[in-house]
Automatic annotation (TrEMBL):
Keywords: Transferase. One of its GO terms (molecular function) is transferase activity. PROSITE patterns: GST_CTER, GST_NTER. InterPro entries: Glutathione-S-Trfase_C-like, Glutathione-S-Trfase_C_sf, Glutathione_S-Trfase, Glutathione_S-Trfase_N, Thioredoxin-like_sf. Gene3D superfamilies: 1.20.1050.10, Glutaredoxin. Pfam families: GST_N. This is Glutathione S-transferase family protein. Residues 86-213 form the GST C-terminal domain. Residues 1-80 form the GST N-terminal domain.
Length: 219
């Protein structure tokens, strides 16, 4: 039995999607970011600062999405979704796993300020502008990479795409995507994958974004 601790439209989607790509079924334990369930003592025993994803598997429990991805791909190498030591794409693969959190931390900052810090502490426009520009820079790097390939690594789809791909469903709330045509085409390729579609069915509706685009407010 595999158990995934999950919030719809959060980083735990990376793992839900990867499990679908691997043909592994899991039990989903659903949480909400706003109802206090992440702060409960029984969940903090699983994930010390109360964050998702956390995965119970093979008699152990792992938190941190990148660590979970590495564990899953390294313990199931026959499924071909990781790039193990010795693989010529190993370095690029590890870079994308880490870069996914560089990009996600910017998104988390934008989410925090646009969605969770309303009155009486309005977010600072200068910070929002800076974070949107930093997000655009990460999209530019992806767009350059995707100019000559379908997936982030030249040999084809990998778990790096589930780590990075998840971020791309939040980025358009903060950055106009028309400047990144290769990323837009990549998003369409992701949406066409059966495992992605099946994971979305299991995911449930997102509860964060209330409008299509969050612009930088005028100072
Ligand atoms: N680096 C961690 C970040 C996990 C994380 O921050 N998850 C968010 C959801 S996307 C969360 O659980 N936030 C709850 C909170 O901050 O209270 C990972 O990649 O797993």
């Amino acid at each position: 039995m595999i158990t995934l601790h999950h919030i719809p439209f959060s980083r735990s989607f990376r793992i839900l999607w990867l499990l679908e790509e691997m043909g592994l079924t899991c039990e989903l334990k659903q949480y909400s970011i706003t109802d206090g369930s992440l702060r409960a003592a029984n969940f903090k025993a699983i994930s010390p600062v109360g964050r998702v994803p956390a995965l119970e598997i093979d008699g152990t429990t792992i938190y941190e999405s990148g660590a979970i991805v590495e564990y899953l791909t390294e313990t199931r190498p026959d499924l071909g979704l990781g790039r193990l030591p010795g693989d010529p794409e190993r370095v690029a693969y590890l870079e994308w796993l880490g870069f996914a959190e560089t990009q996600a931390s910017i998104l988390a900052s934008l989410n925090m300020q646009h969605l969770f810090m309303g009155d009486p502490t309005p977010a600072a426009p200068v910070v929002l502008k800076l974070e949107a520009a930093r997000l655009a820079a990460t999209l530019k790097a992806m767009d350059r990479t995707l100019a000559d390939r379908d997936w982030l690594l030249p040999s084809g789809f990998s778990a790096a795409d589930t780590m990075m791909g998840f971020n791309l469903f939040s980025a358009p709330y903060y950055v106009k995507m028309d400047g990144f045509p290769n990323v837009l085409a990549y998003i369409e390729r992701i949406k066409a994958r059966k495992a992605y579609q099946d994971a979305r069915e299991l995911d449930g509706p997102q509860e964060f974004y209330k409008k299509d685009f969050y612009d930088v407010p005028q100072a």
